[in-house]
Amino acid sequence: MAIEWRASLSIGVEEIDNQHKQLLSHFNQLLKSCEAGKGREELQKLLGFLDDYVIKHFTDEESIQRLRNYPEYEGHKKEHESFVARLKVLKEEISSEGVALHHVMETNNLLLKWLLQHISTVDVRLGTFLKTLAA
């Protein structure tokens, strides 16, 4: 069951939208692997991708917010920090315990919540703000 990119998720900044699409693509690969019974193997690849992704993506997004004096910057940044902290705990558990099914499920839940709560609401609000500046 793949999650499709929708125009309503776009914030109107091509680089950020492409990064979101890339995250969605990797998440879909994890879902596909889970359906095939190979979620544990795919989880390691996804976590490796997320190591680089969160640094670049959050830095890019926060730079745009500071540049445009986004009034919700501090709250947005805290959500990013919370995601990074949750990801760190997950990776530490996997490092000490090895990959278990509950780690795959936890990662699925983490990314699904991120897509539903952060990208589709918080990031879309940023996009709306940026569009008002361009008008």
> What would CATH call the class?
Mainly Alpha
Number of strands: 0
- Distance N terminus to C terminus? 38 Å
Order of helices and strands: HHHH
Which strand-content bin applies to the residues? under 5%
Structural class: mainly alpha
Tell the overall outline: globular
Uncertain ranges: none
State the fourth-level CATH superfamily. Answer: Hemerythrin-like
Radius of gyration over all CA atoms, rounded: 15 Å
Return the average pLDDT rounded to an integer: 91
> Sheet bearing the most strands, described?
none
Task: Tell me the number of structural domains.
Answer: 1
Helix content: over 70%
The CATH topology annotation reads as: Four Helix Bundle (Hemerythrin (Met), subunit A)
In DSSP terms, counting alpha (H) and pi (I) runs of 4 or more, how many helices?
Answer: 4
> Which architecture does the CATH hierarchy give at level 2?
Up-down Bundle
